[in-house]
Design brief:
The structure holds two protein chains of two kinds. Chain A is α+β, with helices and mostly antiparallel strands. Chain A is 34% helix and 18% strand. Chain A has a seven-stranded antiparallel beta sheet with strand order 15-12-14-13-17-18-16, sandwiched between helices. Chain A has a five-stranded antiparallel beta sheet with strand order 5-6-10-8-9. In chain A, strand 17 and strand 18 form a beta hairpin. In chain A, helix 9 runs antiparallel to helix 14 and helix 14 runs antiparallel to helix 15. The longest helix of chain A has 18 residues. Chain A is globular. Chain A starts with 17 loop residues before the first helix and ends in an 18-residue tail after the last helix. By secondary structure, chain B is of the alpha+beta class. In chain B, strand 6 and strand 7 form a beta hairpin. Chain B is globular, with a radius of gyration of 21 Å. The chains are: A alpha+beta, B alpha+beta. Bound molecules: flavin-adenine dinucleotide (2 copies). One flavin-adenine dinucleotide binds next to strand 1, helix 3, strand 8 and strand 17 of chain B.
């Protein structure tokens, strides 16, 4: 698609002597651990946001912590940027390579070192796939709760870097609530342990700070995660609504009723149809909105909550409620939701997935505004999302081969995110800022706040070598974007040149 | 009668002036935890008049309040809607404030079962050491825009910023609650709690005082009834008071004699009880120990570390020495650089957490 340069001049100010760098790295890494030829580097040119592409200067794929540390130390000494990469499923360009930098692949760190069923913990290397942890824990009746839809592919290191969420995070928390300890390499090569197997560790909560920091503060080389016992019982129901607004109100009413479901997801009409065409989950294609609600816990508790949820749903105007009879049917109810992205992928040549989060009470109103904004851009938007958390995933359909459509899709995406900020929400709930939403950060944060972020970054990475140009925009970028957050009518930093 | 006033401008100005002249500030909520942490020094920065609930939407399970708001006022407001702060903050003697509770990061008996203080923090407004008013996070459940500087404030004891306002995730108050006592040794506290949890017993606290195991059940009436039947044990009548007094350190146990002091030892799940002389109470199903002793601090720290945990000299003893477990060199370096990033002049609660911070 577009061949625009994604990095700004201030993000590409490095002077790298590639021959000298190869000479220093070569003896440290296994033969296939250093990729220099273009064809090999091409495999890493993008992550899950395929519209953004950039070849890295080199790819380093260490196999041991000592090798990873040596790569970082050399890059630090020679002032070479480093972009860490787990499985490359980021939807925000977080793992997009830097043109002057080393792409550090953690893929070889794929061992589960320990499952301790008694303490309910798993000690894993950063490249271990999310689902692999639950698979290894399954024989003990345990699982790892945060379950992004990408869980067959995405790595735990990437999950921590993005503070990934999933369907079950409403009740069981995000990655930040389920990781106990991380071993981190700083760009200078120091190894530090953040967090602890005990409920807390002395000093600042650096583990919380690291979680969701998008590869900007250090490289994760080990993690210890908490496992949970499988729920004793589960019930899943599906409710159809005549309007998207009614579905939105029902979500707010369930939470307000003091019930925290294990999962509470919503799909709008086009998403229901797409999922049904794709995998025949038995969805009600007449509905304008479908809510899928999972309750889990002890048997008596679940059946009591089930009755209350059904009452609330009917009060909110559900015209059809179906309760799954057994595990097979439960799996089928979820299958359509889980396959929603690929299903929507068949509706148009390209789609663009947004990730704003809003207070739940605004769901109905925001969904309505999104459809109006889409109509104004002449594009279609499909909604499949973590309704219980207020985390929207509008999928904007477009055709990148038609001139101007990608730009219109990006424009619409930006408008949707700004709408989320306007109602008191955020531009990203779980996919991260990466390269994709970096301009919208200028809308959400004021220059003094961005400056505080730069200072925190410098505390970990004084030379600014880890993932430059991502996550936190420079003030120059914001000035050029023309959307500097204006606070009480004062124009901040009048000294910065406006473009 | 709850009062409300916004002193943001005055607080920011006091910090700016202190910064300009390099004078240290001692941030004070209601100073109920003044005993905590290392010795406080500096000109008092009073937070207790900066108070009031700014935003409370029961249907969203979210509350935002100014840091000087008394916890009792919050609890009363939440109770009207059958909601609560999930982490059961302690009310040490006096009228603790929300800001003090977040800065101290302490949680009550419910913590291992429903979450810690930082788990519930959604956003903050702070004044950093430069006197800038900054806002991070928000009022939504999921937010990964920018670094998570909200949760970083929890437990930092005010050394990184003056907390002005906090947004918290709330939980519905459990419908039913019951406490049972069981005659089992402390060595079985983790194992038994795990067995019960895995069987669907809604445990919300598990403590041992050397004589008995105390187990609190909270949840739907049906779940509590099921748990009670499964556990056996004896019903413990005045339980609410017991848990409150444990949380707030009002049990007789917490009274020190002579040169005794109170230590808090935090341990990994399933760790054996530490081999240390003194009297103790075991909470959090074995993960938090309160120890009353006059043993050598270095010895206590070594033992906690051997078991994979750490020790805090909670109350009493030498408040000019290390109170919290010392950090290793690379970690301390990161702490110092972070302190520098928020408070370059080193004026916010200097030395309260660690001497060099
Ligand atoms: C179809 C699809 C569905 C998705 N569904 C969800 C969902 O439901 N919920 C959700 O949260 N996300 C979802 N995602 C997004 C993505 O899967 C997550 O962000 C995931 O956590 C990324 O993991 P990864 O291993 O692929 O990381 P990468 O894409 O390789 O990297 C992501 C970021 O993490 C950094 N990073 C990776 N490894 C490390 C490390 N070891 N140390 C330091 N930094 C590191 C990178 O530098 C980069 O900034 C989805 C993606 C796809 C393609
Ligand atoms: C070691 C220790 C022992 C404790 N013992 C008890 C006890 O026996 N009984 C009990 O009820 N509670 C106890 N607590 C808990 C503490 O008193 C509570 O957390 C309480 O909520 C503090 O409220 P406060 O307003 O009185 O805080 P303060 O005592 O005024 O302050 C506590 C800490 O937080 C900082 N602080 C206060 N407000 C802010 C703010 N707005 N921004 C930034 N920093 C701020 C202070 O500088 C201080 O470091 C203890 C806490 C600690 C750390």
């Amino acid at each position: 698609m577009s061949e625009r340069s994604l990095y700004r001049p201030e993000d590409t100010r490095f002077e790298v002597d590639i021959e000298a760098l190869i000479t220093r790295l070569r003896p440290l890494l296994p033969a296939e651990g250093l990729i220099t030829h273009e064809q090999g580097r091409r495999a890493y040119e993008c992550d899950g946001l395929a519209a953004y592409k950039q070849l890295p200067l080199l790819v380093a794929s260490p196999e041991t912590v000592d090798q990873a540390r040596a790569v970082l130390q050399i890059c630090s000494e020679s002032r070479v940027p480093v972009v860490a990469r787990g499985s490359g499923t980021s939807l925000s360009g977080g793992a997009l390579p830097h043109p002057q930098g080393v792409l550090l692949s953690l893929a070889k760190f794929n061992r589960i070192k320990e499952i301790d069923p008694h303490r309910r913990i798993a000690r894993v290397e950063p490249g271990v796939r999310n689902l692999a942890i639950s698979e290894a824990a399954a024989p003990f009746g345990l699982y790892y709760a945060p379950d992004p839809s990408s869980q067959i592919a995405c790595s735990i290191g990437g999950n921590i870097a993005e503070n990934a969420g999933g369907v079950h995070c409403l009740k069981y928390g995000l990655t930040v609530h389920n990781v106990l300890q991380v071993t981190l390499l700083t760009i200078e090569g120091d190894q530090v342990t953040l967090g602890s197997l005990a409920p807390e560790s002395p000093g600042y909560d650096l583990l919380a700070l690291l979680t969701g920091s998008e590869g900007m503060l250090g490289v994760i080389v080990e993690a210890v995660v908490q496992l949970l016992p499988n729920p004793l019982t589960k019930q899943v129901l599906m409710a159809s609504f005549p309007t998207v607004e009614a579905g939105g109100h029902a979500v707010a009413a369930i939470i307000a009723g003091g019930i925290i479901p294990a999962g509470l997801e919503m799909m709008d009409g086009p998403a229901i149809q797409a999922a049904e065409d794709f995998i025949q989950a038995g969805y009600d294609t007449q509905a304008a909105a479908l809510l899928i609600c999972e309750l889990d816990g002890g048997e008596a508790e679940v059946s009591e909550q089930m009755r209350r949820v059904e009452t609330i749903l009917r009060e909110q105007g559900a015209d059809r409620i179906r309760v799954a009879r057994d595990d097979t049917e439960r799996a089928r109810f979820w299958a359509g939701r889980k396959a929603a992205f690929p299903a929507v992928g068949r509706l148009a040549p390209d789609y663009y997935c947004m990730d704003g989060t809003i207070p739940r009470k605004h769901l109905a109103q925001v969904l309505k505004r999104i459809s109006e904004l889409s109509a104004a851009q002449g594009l279609r938007t499909v909604n499949v999302f973590h309704a219980g958390d207020g985390n929207l995933h509008p999928l904007i359909l477009f055709d990148g081969n038609r001139p101007g459509e990608l730009e219109r899709a990006e424009q619409l995406g930006g408008q949707i995110l700004e709408l989320c900020v306007e109602v008191g929400g955020t531009i990203t709930g779980e996919h991260g800022v990466g390269m994709e939403k970096i301009d919208q950060m200028c809308v959400q944060f004021r220059p003094e706040e961005l400056e505080q972020f730069y200072a925190v970054k410098a505390a970990f990475d004084p030379q600014g070598l880890l993932n430059p140009g991502k996550a936190i925009p420079t003030l120059n970028r914001c000035a050029e974007f023309g959307r500097l957050h204006v606070h009480r009518g004062e124009l901040p930093h009048p000294q910065i040149e406006r473009f | 009668m709850p009062t409300s006033s916004d002193l943001t401008a005055e607080i920011a100005e006091q910090v700016r002036q202190a910064g300009a002249t390099g004078r240290a500030l001692e941030i004070r909520g209601n100073a109920t935890k003044r005993f905590y942490g290392r010795e406080a020094r500096g000109e008092p920065l009073l937070m207790s008049e900066h108070r009031g609930i700014v935003h409370y939407e029961p249907s969203e399970l979210v509350l935002s309040a100014r840091s000087g708001t008394p916890l009792t006022e919050l609890a009363a407001r939440l109770a009207e809607h059958d909601q609560m702060l999930a982490f059961e903050p302690p009310y040490f003697a006096g009228e603790p404030t929300l800001g003090g509770a977040i800065a101290a990061g302490l949680a009550g008996p419910r913590r291992p079962f429903t979450g810690s203080v930082r788990d519930m923090v959604l956003g903050v407004r702070i004044v950093n050491g430069r006197g800038q008013v900054l806002q991070f996070g928000g009022q939504v459940m999921k937010n990964v825009a920018g670094y998570d500087l909200s949760r970083l404030m929890v437990g930092a004891l005010g050394t990184l910023g003056v907390i002005l306002e906090v947004s918290l995730k709330l939980l519905p108050t459990p419908q039913a609650e019951q406490t049972l006592t069981v005659d089992e040794p402390v060595t079985r506290i983790y194992e038994l709690t795990e067995q019960w949890l895995r069987a669907g017993v809604p445990v919300s606290a598990a403590a041992h005082d050397g004589a008995r195991l105390y187990v609190r059940l909270s949840g739907a009436a049906s779940a509590v009834a099921f748990g009670s039947q499964r556990l056996g044990g004896q019903d413990f009548g005045s339980a609410e008071r017991f848990w409150r007094e444990l949380r707030d350190h009002r049990l007789a146990f917490f009274t020190c004699r002579g040169t005794e002091s109170i230590w808090r030892i935090v341990l990994p799940a399933a760790a054996p009880p530490p081999d240390l002389p003194g009297a103790w109470i075991n909470d959090w199903a074995g993960r938090q120990l309160w120890l009353r002793t006059d043993t050598d601090p270095a010895h206590i720290r070594r033992e906690a570390q051997r078991l994979g945990g750490h020790a805090t000299h909670f109350r009493g003893g030498d408040r000019t020495a290390d109170v919290f477990q010392p950090l290793d060199a690379p970690l301390l370096r990161l702490h110092q650089r972070l302190k520098q990033a928020f408070d370059p002049a080193g004026i916010l609660n200097p030395g309260r957490l660690y001497a060099p911070l």
